[in-house]
Amino acid sequence: MFQGNLALAYLFIKTASAVILFILALAFVLKIRLIRMDKKKKEILKKYEAYFHYVQAHLDGPEPLRRPVEQPTDWELAIISDKFGEWIQMLSGSQQEKLIELSEQMGLVDMNLRLLNSRFSWRRSLAAFRLGKLRSKRAYPFLLQRLRKEKYGADFIICARAAAMCARDGSDLNELAHIFAKQKKNVGMLAADILTGSPQFEPGIVKDWLMSQDFRLLKIALHSLKGHAVAHLAPVLQTLTEVQDKEVRVLAVDRFLYSIPDLTQDIVYKLMNHPDKDVRAITAKAVGMLGDAANIEMLKQAMADPDWLVKHHSAKSLSMLGEEGFSALCEVAVHSEDSFTRDMANDVIHEEIMAERSQV
Amino acid sequence: MRDILLGYGIFAMFYIMVVYCIYFFIMTLSFANISRIIKGSSLTPFDSMSGSAHVPPVSILVPSYNEELTIIENVRSLLSLNYPEYEVIVINDGSQDNTLQVLIDEFNLKFLPNHAERRLLDATPINGVYHNPDYPSLYVIDKRNGGKADSLNAGINLSHYPLICTIDADSLLEKDALIRIARVYMENPDETVAIGGSVRIANGCTIEDGIIKKVRLPDKILPMFQNIEYLKAFLGGRIGWSSINALLIVSGAFGVFRKDYVVKVGGYREGFPGEDMNIIIKLHRYMLENKLPYRIAFCPDAVCWTQAPDSFRILTSQRKRWGRGNIKNMWDYRFMVFNPKYKQVGLLTMPYNVIFETLNPYFKITGFFALLGYFLMDMTALPIVLTFVFINMLINMIFTCGALLLEELAFRRYPRVRDLVIMAGCSVLMTLGYDQLNAIWRFLGQIDFIRNKRTWGVMVRKSWKGETVKS
Fold first, then answer.
1. What backbone torsions phi and psi does residue B384 show, to the nearest 5 degrees?
2. Given CA atoms B225, B226, B229, B234 in this order, what sign does their dihedral have?
3. Cβ distance of A28 and B417 shorter than 8 Å
4. Mean pLDDT of B147-174
C-alpha cells in the first residue's frame, strides 16, 4: 500500500538523517566550545594570578591600585571583570571602593557599557549583570535607560538588579521603585529583594512610598521594611493596618508592631480582636517576640480564638514571656474548658521542656 | 479484512503525524523559551538571594515508606540547602523497616505528642511528631500507613510556611535548587500556584554526604535509557508545555506549591498512584472554574537527582504504576477533555494526554500487529515495512537529539564530550525495544487499573553507597 510513496519515504529518511546530524553537530560544537572556553579561562586566570595577588595584598594601603602592565584583551577583561565582581560583593568600605575605582580605570566598566548596547539580548543582559557586580555608579543612567526599554521578564529583572547595585543615592532607588510599581504583576517581594540589596538602601527612603495611593508602590514599601524597625514610620504604618487590601493590611500590621516604640495594651487589644485572623495571628506572635509581659492576660484569652494559628502563636508567645507567661500557659493547660486549647497548651509546654533539656 | 487493515493503516498514519506535529510544536516552544531560561538561571545572584529576607519560607515535605537506606543522606542534604528560611518535615508513613529509628538515632529526636494537630486536610491521624531543638528546622511525623498522598496531607497539616515543596525520599536536591525555584515564584507570586523542578538520574554519579560531587552518566543500560527519557520529557516537553501554561504534571520527586491553593482543592488524593498529576489537574480545574489568573511554572535549572530503577522488574512495576495513575486521572477528569471552559488544559493538554499518552500503547501494539498483517497478507513488502519502522525511529531520534541540544545550550550537567557521544548512541538503541517495552508496560498498567489494583507495586531501595533492600 505504501509502494507509491517509497521515493517520498526515502527523501524523508535523508532529510531526517540530515536534521539529526545537524542537531548533533551543533550539540558537539557547543560542548567543545564550552570546554575550550573553560580552558582559556583557566589560562587567563593563571596568567593574571600574580596580578590578583598584588591587588589582594594592596587593598588596604593608601596608594591607588595599579593596572596590569600590559593592556588586557577583551576576553581577559571579561574574566577579570567577573573576578573583581566576585570580590566587590565580598568586600566593604575602603577596600571595596578601591577595587571599584580600579575596575573603572582598567576599562572594565567601559567594556560592559559598550556591550550594553549590543544587538544581542544575551550580551546586553550579561553586561548589565557585570556592571551591577562592579557597582559602577557611572553606569546607573545607562542601565536605567536600558531598563525603561525592557518588558517585565528576565532581561528586566537582570537590568533592575544591576541598576539597584549601581544606584548613586536614595533618589535613584526611588526612581527604580516607581518603575517596578508600573508593572502589571505584583512584584513587591522581588522589588524589595532588589532594592534592599542596594548599597544605597536605607529604610527611611520608603516613607514617600508609604504615603502613596498606589497599592503596588505601597506593597514594595512594606516588603522593603521587612526586618527593619523604623519608629518614625510607625504612625504611617498604623494608618495602613485598616486598609481593605489584605496583603497591605497584613504586611502593615507586621511592620507596625515591630516599629512602634511604645506598644500599648489598647493597640494590642484592638489588633487581637481584629476580624482578620491573620492580623490576630501576627499580633499574637509579635507580642511574644517583643517580650512585653503586660499582655499575658490578652494572650491567655487569645488561646480561646477559633483560629488554629492564633491559638498556636498565643501559646508560643506565652512560653516566651518568662516564668509568668509559662505559668499562664500551664493554667490554660489545666483549666481551659476547651479540650483542644488544653492540648495546644500542653503541646507547647512539652516543646519548651524539651528545648530547656536540650540547652542543659 | 484487507480493507479493515488498509483503513486502520491510513488512520494510524494520520494519528502518528498528529502526534509528531504536537511534539514538534512543544519542542519548538521549548527552544523559543530557552534563552529566557538561560538568562534567569545564569544571571541571577543566587548567593545573595539565599541570604535575603524577602525570599518566601518553604516547608519541605518528604514522605517516606521503608527508606532506611537513603533517608539520612537525604535529610542531611536537605538540611544544608542554600535557602534562608525553611523546614524539613519527614513523614514516616508506617514504615516496616527502621526508617523512624535511624532518624531518631541520627538526629537525637525526642517525641512530641502533638495532640493539637492542625487539620487543614484529611489524613490518617498521626502517632506524634519527633523533634530536636538542636535541629530546629527538622520535624519527623510518625503515622500509620496511608500512602504517599495521605503522608503529604499530614505534612501539610504540620507545615508552618505558605509554600510547600514535595520531594521523594530517594532523591537529592542540589544545594541551590530551592532558591532557583523561589526566583521563579518571586517573579509573579500572586499567580504562581505550582512550580516543577527538573529530575535527573543519579545512578553513576559520585555522591558524598548527600551531595552530588561528580556528575557521570549511569553505567547500566536501563538507567541510561531513563536518563535520556527524562531529558526528553523535562527539557523537550515540560519547558514547552509550561510556556503555554498547559503543564499537566509537576513531578512528585520535586515540586513547589502554594499551600493555600493545595488546601482549597482538598489536598492530595488518597489510595492511588499519580497523585502528582492529580494535584495539578485539580489546581487547573479550581483556578479555571473560579476564573482566577494563574500559572503552573517549570524551572528546569532547579535540579533534583533521583535513583532510577536498574532492573526490569522494578522498572516494569514503576511504569505500570505510572500507566495506572495516568488512566485513573484521565478517567476521573474526563469531563474536562475537549471542554472549552478549561481552556488550553481542556482543549490541548488533556486531549493530547488521552489520545497520545493514555491510548498510545494500543496504537503501538495494534500498529505492530497491523504491520505484521500487511506483510503476512502480502499487502506490502518487507522493505516497505522496514522503511516505515526506520522513519519512526528517525523521528524519535530527532526529538531526543533536540533534548540533547537543549541540555548543551542551557544546562551542561554532563561535562565530557564522550557523555554526549554515549547519549546520542543510546538514543538509537532506545528505539529498538525500550520504547516498545514502555508501551507494553503502560498497557499492563491500564489492565491493572481495570482490575482495580491499588498497591504501589514492587520497590527496591538502594542506599547511595549501593546497599539494597526490597519492600
1. -70, -40
2. negative
3. yes
4. 94
Answer yes or no: is A317 within a domain: yes
Q: How confident is the model at residue A153 (pLDDT cuts 50, 70, 90)?
A: very high
CATH number of the domain that residue A354 is part of: 1.25.10.10
Cα–Cα distances (Å) from A85 to A52, A82, A155, A162, in that order, read 13, 5, 19, 12
Contact A193 B54 (CB under 8 A): yes
Task: Report d(CA B106, CA B139) in Å as an integer.
Answer: 13
Residues of A in contact with B384 (CB under 8 A): 2-3, 6
φ, ψ of residue A213 to 5 degrees: the values are -85, -10
For A155-191, the pLDDT digits (tens) are 999 999 999 999 999 999 999 999 999 999 999 999 9
- Contact criterion met (CB < 8 Å) for B379 and A9: no
pLDDT tens by residue, B13-51: 788 888 889 999 999 999 999 999 999 999 999 999 999
- Residue A48, domain member (yes or no): yes
Q: What is the pTM of this model?
A: 0.93
Q: Alpha carbon of A359 to those of A347, A353, A354, B113, B114: distances in Å?
A: 19, 10, 9, 20, 21
Range of the domain at A97: 36-62+74-136
> Position of cell 567601559?
A110
Say whether pLDDT at A21 is over 90: yes
Q: Which of A82, A103, A136 is the last residue of a domain?
A: A136
Q: Is residue A311 part of a domain?
A: yes
- Cross-chain residue pair B53–A344, CB shorter than 8 Å: no
B56: nearest CA partner in chain A: A189
- Residue B452 is given by DSSP the state T
How is domain B21-350+463-470 classified at the architecture level of CATH? Alpha-Beta Complex (3.90)
Residues of A in contact with B300 (CB under 8 A): none
**Chain A residues with CB inside 8 Å of B9's CB?**
1
Question: DSSP 3-state assignment of B99?
Answer: helix
Q: Tally A–B CB contacts below 8 A.
A: 156
Q: Which one, of B269, B293, B292, lies nearest residue B279 by Cα?
A: B269
Domain ranges of chain B: 21-350+463-470
Selecting from A19, A30, A340 the residue whose C-beta is nearest the C-beta of B116 gives A340
The shortest CB-CB distance from A23 to any of B38, B52, B405 is to: B405
- Among all chains, which residue has been given the C-alpha cell 527523501? A11
DSSP characters over B128-176: EEEE-TTSTTEEEEEE----HHHHHHHHHHH--SSEEEEE-TTEEE-TT
Q: Which helix (H) or strand (E) holds B299?
A: strand B295-306
Which candidate from B39, B387, B424 shows the least CB-CB separation from A24? B424
* Shortest alpha-carbon distance between residue A355 and chain B (Å): 6
Strands B126-131 and B110-112 turn out to be: antiparallel
> Which residues of chain A does B163 touch, with a Cβ-Cβ cutoff of 8 Å?
none
- Give the number of domains in chain A: 2
* Of residues B38, B408, B415, nearest to A27 (C-beta): B408
* Inter-residue contact A135 to A100 (CB < 8 Å): yes
In a domain, A85, yes or no: yes
Select from A1, A19, A154 the Cβ nearest to the Cβ of B380: A1
Query: pLDDT of B343-395, one tens digit each?
Result: 999 999 999 999 888 888 888 788 878 878 887 887 777 888 888 888 888 99
Q: What is the distance between the alpha carbons of residues B58 and B164, in angstroms, rounded to a whole number?
A: 6
ipTM: 0.92
User: What is residue B20's three-state secondary structure?
Assistant: helix
Query: What does the alpha-carbon distance between residue A217 and residue B427 come to, in Å, rounded to a whole number?
Result: 52
Q: Which candidate in A3, A12, A17, A20 is best for mutational testing of the B interface (most B CBs within 10 A)?
A: A20
* Residue whose C-alpha cell is 591587588: A55
Where is the domain boundary, A83, A116, A136? A136
